[in-house]
Specification:
This protein is mostly helical. It is built from seven helices and two strands. α1 packs antiparallel against α4 and α5 crosses α7. The termini are far apart.
Amino acid sequence: MKKMKSKDIDRVVEAIRSLDKTESLEKKEAEKKSKWRERITFWTALVLAAFSIYTGINSMKDNRETERRNLEIQAYTVWNNYLDLGAKNPTLANGLVYIDTVRVDSLACRDCRKKPYDSAIVNKFVKYAWFVNSAFGAADLVLSLQESDTAWNKAVDELIKNHATYVKSECFETGYFSEALRKKIEAERK
């Protein structure tokens, strides 16, 4: 083997030091890149989380709006069915005080066993009672769907007023209606 000269040794040492510096610089560069990757990952995750929250909130708002619209459509459909029934029976829809010469409230409280009224009059009353109960069933459903809506409440109040004579009779049964409709009926009875 050949002996190395001091210059050669110095060159080798210098080369080793140069390699150490290069490795050290590469390490530092890798650490910088790693820190930047961590920062980018953090900010990306933060932006994605904010976007997810924003999307979730908008989705909930859209769902509530869709639900509100669906309830309104249901209310309109139910009320439209009542209006169709009223168009087919305009005399009944406007409310009756008398059927022929007999007051509706008297017919409501009649004793069927005694049969004091002509069967034709009783049949007309039965048809009217059916109409009113159908109308109030629609009103009850509309109130359950749109209880806080002022316009719907006015429409239901008007319906009750149209049939005040029958509603005010002590024999008009309200037990199967919702509490909201019963309260409106009771207010009309006063």
